[in-house]
Amino acid sequence: MKLLYCNDCGDIVALSMDVRTCRCRKSAGCYDINGDDVKVSGPCRVLCLDNRDLAWAKAYRNETAVVKAWVLPKEYRKIVRSEGGE
Ligand SMILES: [Zn+2]
Question: How far is the CA of 61 from the centre of ligand 1 (A)?
Fold first, then answer.
């Protein structure tokens, strides 16, 4: 699962097939048609949550779950940036 983190307002938005924007509206993004690559704009970074960890967390609701997360590099093969985002 990929999320957009806006460096300006600190908002985190789950990416979807539709374009979603952060609270300050400077950053926006969505999944590409392939459902894996993302298109983003504005002063943002892309965060990833481990899908297997999330599935486990959903299956074992009564236990605290650790979900691995990481930040993709600003320039990355699965990210298309537009409008000069940082
Ligand atoms: Zn923002």
Answer: 31
